[in-house]
Amino acid sequence: MAMKKTKDPDEELNNSLQGDQPGENPKVIEPAEADASGENASEPAAKTPRRTRRTKKTEEKETQSDTEAKPRATRAKSKIASEALPTEEHVVSIGDRHSAQTEADKAKDDLLDLLESLKAGRVLTDVIQGVEKTGGDYVAVLYHGDFKVIIPALEAIIPPNDYRDLDPNAVHKYMLTKRLGAELDYIVKGIDPQTGMAVASRLEAMKARQKQYYLSRDRDGNNLLYEGVLAEGRITSVIKAGIFVDLFGVEVYISMKELSYQRWIDASEYYRPGQRVIVRILSVDRSDRNNIKVKASVKQAKENPYEKALKRFVEGNQYVGTVSMVDENGVFVAMDGGIDCLCEYPRRGRPPIGSRVTVRVIGINRSTNRMWGAITHTTTAY
After folding, report:
1. The pTM is what?
2. Residue 40 pLDDT more than 70?
3. Which of 63, 168, 300, 335 lies 20 to 30 Å from 348, alpha-carbon distance?
């Protein structure tokens, strides 16, 4: 009896992935065919007419198996491709429908969000996760679920009016890097579901926010945002001298003196991109609808600590504090209650920032919320 040639496993795997090749159709062995290929196959067909009919039936089945082989190979391809996508399985729910999302549900919702933004201009919000260089230009990288969203630099930041003879690409990279971790609004401009990537614009989303909050009016005819109102802003960038806040589509710079009633040296010690702060709007300039300007303050959104804290101190007495800043005016000491006491330079030398010192209060001006004194003793620094 002739031995069947065993196929190599790698050859079988390649054939299943590549589909049928001419002259190599896979053959499915049916029970009738197995009988014909056994010992009885050596007997003449004329003596056993029943066996002849079985052979004819076998040929029909062989033809059917040949036609079924191609769909099976195609199904093998589809199965491999679908493994990259979340599989939607049946979930036994507590109620009529399950409220907890599966991975397939989340992927579907993320794609619908992007498509709605693309077709209807819906504003989406995500966090800048990285900065990449693509085709010589830098882009901000965000993720909406598993979809990668890229925003070109000139669609993610407001470029400076003057680059000061610096390389524009280097400036864009710096500005994007300072915004890592910040929340950004964006509108999708293009999407490729196959690669899981989308291209978006932040500037268009900012225009949409401005139209909604600065140019629209309520039922009484009043603007939603105006001078004196408190509003929540999102910090997009922090530098030593202050912070940049996205205030409903307008990027507002808030300097150090409007961050706290105390003297600070570096704003980055207290704030970071991605934080949210309550600000008080000081002014809104709507004269140019395409360039709305807003001034805001963080400290004026809080209660002035001097009005309450100054009642704790009495002239001529001594109190403990921490050196917060040293400049040409003297030594600023942070006292209990969140206020500063301005002191002259001690004769023993200028104390380092962070030193614990004892201060004798010389004078208090409650109308201007000012207190001054003299350092009498310095302890160890932090």
Report:
1. 0.67
2. no
3. 335
